[in-house]
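User: Hello! I'm new to structural biology and keep hearing that structure can be predicted from sequence alone. Could you demonstrate with acetyl-CoA carboxytransferase? Please show me the input and the output so I can see what each looks like.

Assistant: Of course. The first part below is the input, the amino acid sequence of acetyl-CoA carboxytransferase. The second part is the output, the predicted structure written as tokens.
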Amino acid sequence: YRKALRMMYYADHHGFPIITFIDTPGAFADLKSEEIGQ
């Protein structure tokens, strides 16, 4: 946690963007899911 916070302060100070990836289950990319509006 401390290392991530330190890197966020560093990025903010130098004007770097922060990109976050969150691994969560999402919508399926198949035809049936498209039909039901998922």
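User: So the tokens describe the shape?

Assistant: Right, they're a compact way of writing down the 3D structure. Reading them back into a model, for example: The CA atoms of residues 12 and 33 lie 39 Å apart.
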